[in-house]
């Protein structure tokens, strides 16, 4: 790595550190909308228990998501987006 590239990388890391400490605002922030879990479930026509079984979580977890006490992350969030986009195809795929 040449000196110019190293200096650029170092400046970038120092900027990241300032943002993390709150000394500098991030130049760009990407926000991803939180899935409306209850609305997604209602699109399927399933009960809480049936939907929880379908996506592989406990009924309690689903209740917490629907009531805003917890929020789906990672694969669960991705799966909810898939179910939201095409509920019937997702149900067929997950039931097979």
UniProtKB/TrEMBL annotation:
By its UniProt entry, which Pfam families does this protein fall under?
HTH_31
Q: Which SMART domains does the UniProt entry name for this protein? A: HTH_XRE (SM00530)
Q: Where is the HTH cro/C1-type domain?
A: 37-73
Q: Which domain of life is it from?
A: Bacteria
Q: Which UniProt keywords apply?
A: DNA-binding, Transcription, Transcription regulation
The keyword Secreted is assigned to this record: no
Residue ranges of the TM segments: none
Q: Which InterPro entries match?
A: Cro/C1-type_HTH, HTH-type_reg/antitoxin, Lambda_DNA-bd_dom_sf, NadS-like
Entry protein name: NadS family protein
Source organism (scientific name): Chitinimonas lacunae
């Amino acid at each position: 790595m040449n000196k110019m590239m190293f200096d650029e990388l170092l400046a970038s890391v120092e900027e990241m550190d300032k943002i993390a400490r709150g000394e500098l605002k991030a130049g760009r922030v990407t926000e991803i909308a939180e899935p409306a879990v209850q609305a997604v479930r209602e699109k399927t026509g399933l009960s809480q228990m049936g939907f929880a079984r379908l996506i592989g979580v406990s009924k309690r977890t689903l209740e917490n998501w629907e009531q805003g006490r917890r929020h789906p992350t990672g694969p669960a969030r991705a799966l909810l987006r898939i179910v939201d986009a095409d509920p019937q195809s997702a149900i067929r795929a997950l039931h097979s």
